[in-house]
Design goal:
alpha/beta; Rossmann fold; 10 strands; binds adenosine-5'-triphosphate; binds magnesium ion
């Protein structure tokens, strides 16, 4: 397992949000976290990448092992250096920089020295970004901005890429493009962890799935074989 959460409990100040969460991701696989609004998907992601640190009023208890190292208590910049890239919910790009500049400031070698992902390989994966390379971030469409946030994560040559609701607010044709992109990522050996409300998309691109409700895992299993009853109970509207 490349990442393993054991009995994780997460808090924002006094609010206890994540309860005894256990979750594991196998190296090279794609895993999704599903659940309705406000169940704690983003909080789980933030707990992993160190964004719930006490300085920001957050607190994480339990253990999160990534590549043999304990992440709980480690600052987010150190976690990033271990090879964990994070695409936050909402598109946080630099609006006054061009596409190319947004990409170049993120560029770095992987922990093992790998530099597979660079401007050329990222543009190959996202030809649209190449076309828009000199456009300002603020001038990109929603879909292009989302592609840019993913591409920027890749420029860090991560071992693992966490993506929080990358399909949110995107047109179906763009979501289809993202399906291909996540699949190609897998072929390049990047481990993927997705948090999604788009069940169809997530199950399409993942091998394993965790469903959470009220801050805890209520079901986990292979993405291809989730019982209908579980869908209705936890994911239906
Ligand atoms: N900074 C914060 N301070 C206090 N409570 C928060 C904070 N951020 C989120 N919460 C609360 O934590 C709970 C889980 O939120 P979280 O954002 O993790 O859910 P989510 O599953 O990602 O939802 P969504 O599908 O809407 O993105 C919610 O009740 C939310 O109100
Ligand atoms: Mg969220």
């Amino acid at each position: 397992m490349i990442v393993e959460l054991k009995d994780v409990n997460s808090f924002y100040g006094e609010s206890h949000i994540i309860f005894d969460m256990n979750l594991a991701v196998e190296e090279g696989s794609s895993v999704c976290i599903l659940g309705r609004n406000g169940v704690g998907k983003s909080t789980t992601m933030k707990s992993i990448v160190g964004l719930l640190n006490p300085k920001k009023g957050g607190n994480v208890k339990g253990s999160i092992i990534f590549d043999g190292k304990e992440l709980v208590g480690m600052p987010s910049y150190k976690i990033a250096r271990l090879g964990m890239a994070y695409v936050p919910q909402g598109r946080h790009i630099f609006p006054t920089l061009t596409t190319k500049e947004n990409l170049l400031i993120a560029e770095r070698r992987g922990v093992d020295g790998s530099q597979y992902w660079n401007l050329d390989t990222v543009y190959e994966l996202f030809p649209r970004l190449k076309e828009r390379e000199n456009s300002l971030g603020s001038k990109l469409s929603g879909g292009e901005q989302q592609m840019l946030t993913i591409a920027r994560g890749l420029m860090q040559n991560p071992k693992m890429l966490l993506m929080d609701e990358i399909t949110e607010g995107l047109a179906p044709v763009i979501v289809k493009e993202l399906v291909d992109i996540v699949r190609k990522l897998q072929e390049s050996d990047v481990t993927v962890l997705l948090a999604e409300q788009s069940v169809k998309f997530a199950l399409n691109v993942s091998q394993y799935c965790y469903i959470i409700e009220k801050g805890t895992v209520v079901y986990h299993g292979k993405s291809a074989s989730i019982p209908e009853k579980i869908f209705e109970q936890y994911l239906g509207t």
